[in-house]
Design a protein that fits this description.
Layout: E1 3-4, H1 5-16, E2 28-31, E3 36-37, E4 39-45, H2 48-56, E5 61-66, H3 79-90, E6 94-97, H4 100-104, H5 110-118, E7 121-125, E8 136-144, H6 146-157, E9 162-164, E10 171-177, H7 185-190, E11 195-198, H8 203-212, E12 215-218, H9 221-224, H10 227-240, E13 243-246
Parallel strand pairs: 4-5, 4-13, 5-6, 10-11, 11-12
Antiparallel strand pairs: 1-3, 2-6, 7-8, 8-10, 9-12
Amino acid sequence: MDITNFQLSNFLDSVLTPEKIKDFCPNGLQVEGKTSINKIVTGVTASQALIDQAVDVGADAIIVHHGYFWKGESPCLTGMKKKRISTLLKHDINLYAYHLPLDIHPELGNNAQLAKRLGIIDLLPLEEGNSQSVVMKGRFPHPITPEELNQKIHLSLNKLPLHEPADKNQINTIAWCTGGGQGYIEQAANQNIDAFITGEVSEQTIHIAREMNIHFYACGHHATERYGAKALGEHIQNHLGIESIFIDVHNPA
């Protein structure tokens, strides 16, 4: 079975509703390729390595979390960007990208998928009253120790996190934002959350964690955002009958 590239675009927009949130890049079809689609590759970032692997497996479309044309970047198609886009055009591959819509989707999103892997329940927006919050809060079914959470993250993401401990022996409540969400740690601490998880860490984040007494875990931008694209591909395969292959291009960041 196959569908057209614009039918896939309409399906993705209906699932992820990008019109509901302001973003730093265009969401949806970013580079148009062939009309007929019967094989999709999903991944985190539209890097050259992902594109090359998509070419190798004969993909008609690539769907990623991190695409192109970010606000503030040069619009010129030169260097690395020229090579990436020329590869897509040469092989007539469609590129779709969904940034914040793929972070916040309540089932397929990066935040929801991370919560599922870590066993977090009772999910709510950390930004109270904002249904499009990119940072979430919840709790564990039973309190766990900081060391147990560290091990749970390690096993779930296959990555040992950076942990800045707090003066709390147990963790019940937790807030998290996949990717570069370290700036939300103060909001979590102000709501008396026991621990905060994100992908990246900034120098000041450690001081905030120490002074506001909240456990902080930096688990890797890539590692925390692998699972939304994978879940989206599986959703497409289940609902549209289109073959979907998730390709994880290793990135230690």
